[in-house]
Amino acid sequence: MAARTFTIDGKHVSADESATILEAASEVGITIPTLCHLDGVYDVGACRLCLVEVTGVPKLLPACTTRVAEGMDINTDSERLRKYRRMTLELLFAERNHVCAVCVANSHCELQTLAYTLGMDHVRYEYTFPRWPVDNTHSLFGMDHNRCIMCTRCVRVCWHIEGAGTKNVSGRGARSQVISDLNQPWGTSETCTRCGKCVMSCPTGALFAKGVTVSEMERDRTKLEFIVTAREKKQWIA
Amino acid sequence: MVIDDLIEIAEKEKAARKPCVVRCCMAAGCMSSNSQGVKEALDRAVKAAGLEDRVEVRGVGCMKLCCQGPLVQIDQEAPGATVEVQTIGKGPLYEKVTPESAASLIETIKGGSTDVSAADPQHPFFTQQFSIVLANSGIVDPERIESYIAAEGYHALHDVLREMTPKEVVDALIKSGLRGRGGAGYPTGLKWATVAKTASAQKYVICNADEGDPGAFMDRSVLESDPHAVLEGMAIAAHAVGASQGFIYVRAEYPLAISRLQTAIKQAKQLGLLGSGIFESPFNFSIDLRIGAGAFVCGEETALMASVEGKRGTPRPRPPFPAESGLYNSPTLINNVETFANVPAIIRKGADWFAGIGTEKSKGTKVFALAGKITNTGLIEVPMGTPLRKIVEEMGGGAPDGGTIKAVQTGGPSGGCIPAAALDTPVDYDSLTKLGSIMGSGGMIVMDETTRMVDVARFFMEFCMDESCGKCIPCRAGTVQMHHLLAKILERKATLRDLQKLEELCDMVRSTSLCGLGQTAPNPVLSTLRYFRQEYLDLLREDALGPGANGHSSRTTTPAPQPAGGN
Fold first, then answer.
1. Minimal Cα–Cα distance from B332 to chain A, Å?
2. Could you name the CATH architecture of B454-557?
3. N-to-C CA span, chain A
4. CATH code reported for the domain at B382-449
């Protein structure tokens, strides 16, 4: 355990050498936008929203998977980064059918919130309007692929927090999708423990508890947070 | 197995040679035009002519001039002598041999004549080749380890195990200046040194044989023609870095390469050249095959390792690099087929010899697969620094039917198009990068004036879109939008703003994608925009540009007869 000192947006910061740029930044109150990151669950660096500039490094680095280093000069906010982040969101909105007005997660949606905060006021790319199904076969939850952004949070909590291994990814590219077990209706899954962690982790309205309608979705994220912090603090080990 | 056994096998193999060797190409290219049938016909003809004691019909690997296959070459010596390695490949190379015409070739051995045409051995396609990787290709029988041993095979492995320390091997590789042949050109010696220095009880060596660039078939030919060279290179690498287990990740679309590798591994195991205590040293090494299931992205090293582990083949952010934490979180050395195939020759002939070939920063040779609008399609191996013009015009014979070469595409979907004006560029890693393309794994697709560059860009973008793994957003969704914009341009429905959007997306996808596939996906668009921008502008909608719009002189100087807004 050794401390590292470096700067984030001109601010002098110190953090443990094992910390990621994202963790170090959040400790000093600097918010870096993320979509695939979920506290307590391992990172995959997939959404590319948390990319930051580091002086002397030609490539942009994902804050969620890059460890801090001595003397690093990190810039989390620039015209170039803001532009890329807006474009990433635009690409997501054009990719599937994100219609906020009729979405259970309206005003409880991380994608929507990010679009507001990052100033994405319109989408310049052609909407692809793909035809994705809605899986309503589960007795408690539903999965609307039209709202999915493939952050794979649900897959990771299902495998690594719950340990059920129900959720998976199939296909590739624009045809990739979250599936249950061997790509079967969620309701027929034999591994699903009905714990609902996938629903709690979902940033959009792709996974939802049945019985809610437009804008009614409330995620019990605190429950998930408790589980992962208890894990990290080893509160379950006597 | 000790060195005497190896020498004995080689001597026995040489003693069994006959004065006449008829070599028939049994690599995938010629096999697809029935070289199997040709070989059987040759066997029958030899028997019918009663020449069995004088003539050997040998199935060999690629003889390079793939467009003229099936290829058969006949080498003969004066009666009483045997054909030595040095004289092999000097006899006439017959083209487009059929099972029906095979018998007439055997007649020529007895002094008869044949109607089958033979290639001109003085053609630059043959004379300008410089073979290191392909030295055994078309000479040895890839299905017999004895044939490889007779060509000095596994001698380098012996020398390495018995006479060199791992550090000396790494130093030799550094000194040779060999750079990775998979595309990026990372110094091989440096990579080996990093893995060697990482402390771990378990390390792995992986051979990346997931060749997937459209139009590229170098690695397939090496595996089909000389699989033992790759195995020997891997074993030398394993000794150098301290690994005991190797994997060859080969795509399922290469069934012949897979079968030859299986045979080669089995034979090497039988002779004790793979397994435990190789050459009675403490070195153990085994190699297993892993078959790819058709995803292009699995050629990316982190995705490849995930796939070897049985997981979904998606890349992960680096660092940690494989040299530090790779397969099963152990230090892993991962090199491409051609890189490994260079290794035995470097050890055998010395690092200085290798470093004397090529240019200052790119040493050795490079194998290229010539494809597209070029007369002589096939495989060539040339020293680094050979001008592109020499490759495509002299060796390749230029565009067929008197056409003019417009551009050369290198590096597959990660590369770019080099315009004809830049054909005098020497082919090495740095020169090609400067031109906005890359060396890549060695695919070289030639285009003539009938090729529309926007079509080319759209083709490669479609490829990247289909092959994106879907993990990161810029690559997954960005390639879809770029492909859409390119299609819109080709439909003549795009405006200048669409072109701007396309360029903006190219920049964004390149800068923000997770792995090399996404980061390089815009390259074909960027390079065609750089050299053939006018073609894009000419395809824009009639009303897309007002009078005097920059760079669009053809439309502004001659008023279009049809009314604006035709779409």
1. 21
2. Up-down Bundle (1.20)
3. 24
4. 3.10.20.600
